[in-house]
Specification:
By secondary structure, the protein is mainly α. It contains four helices and no strands.
């Protein structure tokens, strides 16, 4: 009974180590706080340069 309990506890420890390793790997991949999220707050149509030079107002 004690050996079985010990083996279950060992499995739990191994799972928690594996989860910690996965969490740290995910943090390296996805946890980049240096990304410029402020750029994404501005609509894309405002960030693009205009393609048409002049318009109806400039022809008058």
């Amino acid at each position: 009974m004690m050996k079985r309990l010990q083996s279950l506890l060992d499995r739990l420890v191994a799972i928690s180590r594996y989860e910690a390793m996965l969490r740290s790997r995910a943090q390296v991949i996805f946890g980049k706080p240096e990304q410029e999220m402020a750029l994404l707050e501005t609509p894309t149509c405002w960030r693009r340069p205009p393609r048409v030079r002049g318009g109806i107002a400039s022809q008058a």
